[in-house]
């Protein structure tokens, strides 16, 4: 475990250059909420940014051609892949927590500064949005990490966009076929199910996605030559 | 003699290149130089040694198969790769933080003493380092956990003579500290290896052309310069290769003493490893 922590430290030290960007993000969110009164996008933005920052560690390794050197250190290929997933998953969770808490903090500050135009905070809505944001970024990470192991950080990003495009087309195609068929869908049932089990379903889906992505990444990385 | 590294029939195939049945040992207490022109297979051999690439054959380090005990074996290896290191967005101080977790025997005091001795700024990003400073950092990172074996891929390439001397002195000091230690060093700057290596292994086109003690190579091998007439009198078995020059022939021979006993030619030069390499690669048989 010490070795994995060493690899994570390497990535965190690389990311220390993002300190300024995060400060700019906080200021941007504060201004956006203040001017529009909309709060739902904050967890989405924060979660997306922290999740993408975690993925950028692959770029640091690739541009410095560090892969070979990292493989020569006393770590296994599984340690390397595991460290990337721990960082990716942690970044999603931390992003969600930050986004959630930051929204509450900002709304309260704004309500103190502007008592004449109070913003009402719907905690259920905020929680759903946050979990939804986590799901979105974990889907991107789950697709992108194996893509990067297969094609490299630069090409992997292009492949990821292609995959997302294919997924969107597939989902839209299925929806279109379902809408135009005689198949009856009870939207009320779906809504009830989502209200009761939506969050649990999303969390389970995230766990499954990360697990499949990890196994796939490991399989690709174990057979890769540098 | 006990070996720290043993390679047996190691092969690897890439499109357009093949490493063919590489076998050699790195004995304890010795410095082994791996020489050859660019693209000859030196780096591929080192990559196989470190299990960075898939290969056929067997590689044992400290008497254990690298594929089986990789993690433990690598704790006792110090690695310098020519074209790869940690990210340029780290500082020497950051590297110490990382390595403490990766090597149980990492010695921070030793590391920072080297950083100080080599006049490297500990808080500056590596991207701002010159190539000489970066190589020094790679080397001190490789030796600060007291490894039993150093594996160095082109550690002196692109460096000026003063820095090269400093680095070679560091290797000499490292090997002198403990007679169980070994160094495997690949380089195309053969003059460096002439001074420090105990054994020389010459790889060409993915094959080992020669493997012998460096003193044997420098003392016994010779370059004969003779006329065409003299050359025609030589038996093919008595020389390795020859190069036809404008005015004379240059002939690489394996045993100077034997040659002088057999032939009347007395002008035999003591060759450098560079000249031997050149005649092996460019010469005819």
Please state the overall shape of chain B, judged from the principal axes of the Cα atoms. elongated
Q: Mean pLDDT across all residues of chain A, rounded?
A: 85
Q: Could you describe the largest sheet of chain A, including whether it forms a barrel?
A: none
Classification by helices and strands of chain B = alpha/beta
Folded structure, characterized:
The complex is a heterodimer of chains A (226) and B (285). Chain A contains 9 helices and no strands. Chain A has helices at residues 2-15, 19-36, 41-55, 57-63, 67-72, 77-113, 123-151, 153-180, 187-222. The radius of gyration of chain B is 21 Å and the shape is elongated. Chain B has helices at residues 42-49, 70-74, 92-102, 108-117, 131-143, 161-177, 190-196, 214-220, 228-232, 256-262, 273-282; strands at 3-14, 17-27, 31-35, 56-61, 64-65, 77-80, 149-153, 182-187, 199-204, 207-213, 222-226, 241-244, 249-253, 268-269. In chain B, helix 3 packs antiparallel against helix 4 (108-117). In chain B, the strands form 3 sheets. A 6-stranded mixed β-sheet of chain B has the order 6-7-8-3-9-10, with helices on both faces. A 4-stranded antiparallel β-sheet of chain B has the order 2-1-4-5, covered by helices on one side. A 4-stranded antiparallel β-sheet of chain B has the order 12-13-11-14. Helices cover 35% and strands 28% of the residues of chain B. Chain B has 285 residues and is α/β, with parallel strands linked by helices. Chain B has 11 helices and 14 strands. At the A-B interface, helix 1, helix 4 and helix 5 of A face helix 2 and helix 3 of B.
